[in-house]
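User: Hi! I have a protein structure encoded as tokens and I'd like to know what sequence might fold into it. I'm fairly new to this, so please keep things simple.
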């Protein structure tokens, strides 16, 4: 059986370095058997590839891809906290924040980018509870932000 990192590679993904916090917080915290990530923006090589509101400057498809990037960043923070993604026993909760123009109601479709990646990487253990929330603005005018809670061994 392959590891989560190997499954990521099969899908053409690698985990990036953990993004440095932009404030007084840490990327992930372990409490007992749970790891909670801070909100992860869709940084690629230290830059936001797109900014603006989904439904206006950013399409739903682009935002879906950005949600996947946020999730890779969250998984990097989890791996840094626990050593390897094989320690993840279950993805418990995903929260996806979508900076949306007022008429946009496709937040669940955006969050699917994150959910589908977690399912592909962790199989049944990647099925999770989820919230997909439209918001007025996110830090740095990012279109999407993702938080994860995972159970680890």
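Assistant: Happy to help. Inverse folding works backwards from shape to sequence: for each of the 153 positions I chose a residue that suits the local structure. Here it is:
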């Amino acid at each position: 059986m392959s590891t989560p990192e190997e499954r990521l590679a099969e899908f053409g993904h690698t985990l990036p370095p953990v993004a440095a916090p932009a404030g007084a917080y840490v990327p992930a915290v372990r409490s007992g058997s749970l790891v909670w990530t801070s909100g992860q923006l869709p940084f690629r090589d230290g830059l936001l590839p797109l900014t603006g509101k989904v439904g206006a400057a950013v399409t739903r498809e682009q935002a879906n891809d950005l949600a996947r990037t946020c999730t890779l960043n969250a998984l990097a923070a989890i791996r840094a906290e626990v050593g390897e993604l094989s320690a993840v026993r279950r993805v418990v909760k995903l929260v996806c924040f979508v900076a949306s123009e007022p008429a946009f109601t496709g937040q669940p479709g955006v969050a699917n980018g994150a959910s589908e990646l977690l399912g592909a990487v962790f199989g049944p253990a990647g099925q999770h509870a989820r919230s997909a929330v439209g918001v007025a603005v996110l830090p740095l005018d990012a279109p999407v932000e993702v938080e994860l809670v995972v159970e680890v061994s």
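A useful reference point when you look it over: The CA atoms of residues 11 and 84 lie 18 Å apart. Feel free to ask if any position seems puzzling.
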